[in-house]
Amino acid sequence: MLERPCTGCGLDTAAVARQDVAAMVRANAASWADLLAGDAAPPRERPRPDVWSPLEYACHVRDVFSLFAIRLELMLTQDDPVFPNWDQDETAVAEDYGSQDPARVGVELAHRAEALARAFERVDGAGWARTGSRSDGASFTVESFARYLVHDVVHHLHDVTGVTSE
User: Fold this and answer.
1) What is the pLDDT averaged over residues 72-82?
2) Nearest residue to 58 (alpha-carbon basis) of 162, 166, 160
3) What dihedral do alpha carbons 106, 107, 113, 115 form, nearest 10°?
4) What's the rounded Cα separation, in Å, for the pair 150 and 161?
5) Is the Cβ–Cβ distance between 96 and 22 less than 8 Å?
6) pTM (global) more than 0.90
7) How buried is residue 9: exposed, middle or buried, by Cβ count under 10 Å (0-12/13-18/19+)?
8) CATH 1.20.120.450 fits 19-161, yes or no
9) What are the residue boundaries of the structural domains of the chain, listed by start?
């Protein structure tokens, strides 16, 4: 996914310039806000029992923005940190994603995206090469971490809308 275009959402993460990450985060958040405010699809309705609703995906993306802000801070302030585990499915159940207020989720998602975008804007030249790892052994530089993030949230928007990246 970081080396070639995603066959699902179409995003070519290798072509994502690090100076564009903040704008991409903001644009993604704006798309979620539009989706949550619109009437095109009921936000709480799951397309299948095993697939999250648009609201559940939005809650997940909101939480991803928070998680990535924490992990980015760790990478920039510690030497090669190992990130604490995060079980996204457990969080979805514990936080009852499906019954949250779409308007509130939209606001929270926008605020968290803005905080993360600003954090990426503060990364300087050498900061992009700092490293961190997940507990499963996946290793990232801040730059590859940024591309991984962008793919994650773009792909989830594709999961809900079916729109591919260009």
Assistant:
1) 98
2) 160
3) -170
4) 16
5) no
6) yes
7) buried
8) yes
9) 19-161
The mean pLDDT value for 29-46 works out to 83
User: Which among 3, 24, 140, 129 has a CA at the least distance from the CA of 71?
Assistant: 140
pLDDT digits (tens, 9 = 90+) for 93-141: 999 999 999 999 999 999 999 999 999 999 999 999 999 999 999 999 9
* Residue 166: pLDDT band with limits 50, 70, 90: low
Cβ burial 61-92 (10 Å sphere, 16+ → b, else e): bbbbbbbbbebbebbbeeeebebeeeeeeeeb
Tokens 């979620």 correspond to: 32
- The token pair at 17 is 């310039």
Residue range 142-164: average pLDDT? 94
Q: Which residue has the tokens 């959402």?
A: 9
Check: CB of residue 109 under 8 Å from CB of residue 61. Answer: yes
- Give the span between the Cα atoms of 60 and 72, in whole angstroms: 18
